[in-house]
Write a structure and sequence with these properties.
167 residues; alpha/beta; four-stranded mixed beta sheet; 6 helices; 23% strand
């Protein structure tokens, strides 16, 4: 996604820290606390950074994370919003703009937008308080093939670029 955005003229910072192997006595419950430090450092070094996109993979199986569109199999995307963020509606507008672009050309590629509150193992904020243009996007699931993920990554990057350039 970062490479495709770069080709579309959008600068990116692609953080790839592996906190689970880098942090002694890593605690999964603090994953977003660790990544928040990385995001804030990137934002400080890149004052013009306004969009934050956190890419994940869904834990659902292939049947729930795959769509066939125009005869090709794609890993579906699912937009996750943290409702523990008091300004979540701004993030929802950002996610919805990407969702709408996808639906126009690739109906069914997006599984929609899901707002999650904190509790029951959910963070509920996902560092989305750091920008009104922030979203967590699950791309495919644990069974999607590299080809399905690549097809979706290209389409998703193009949709993000369209939203970016139109704003």
């Amino acid at each position: 996604i970062a490479d495709r955005l770069e080709k579309r003229g959008i600068g990116t910072v692609h953080a790839q820290e592996d906190y689970a192997t880098e942090v002694p006595d890593y605690n999964w419950n603090f994953s977003y606390k660790y990544s928040r430090i990385t995001i804030k450092a990137a934002m400080a070094a890149n004052q013009e950074m306004t969009e934050l996109i956190d890419i994940h993979r869904d834990s659902q199986r292939h049947g729930k994370t795959t769509a066939v569109i125009h005869g090709e199999s794609y890993a579906q995307v699912y937009f996750i919003l943290g409702h523990a963020n008091k300004d979540w509606k701004k993030n929802e507008a950002f996610a919805n703009s990407i969702h709408q672009v996808l639906e126009k050309s690739y109906p069914g590629l997006s599984r929609g937008i899901w707002g999650k509150s904190s509790g029951n193992g959910n963070n509920g904020e996902y560092n989305q308080t750091l920008s009104p243009n922030s979203v967590l996007i699950e791309v495919g699931g644990i069974d999607n093939s590299a080809e399905e993920l690549k097809r979706t990554a290209d389409v998703l990057a193009d949709a993000i670029a369209e939203v970016y350039w139109n704003s």
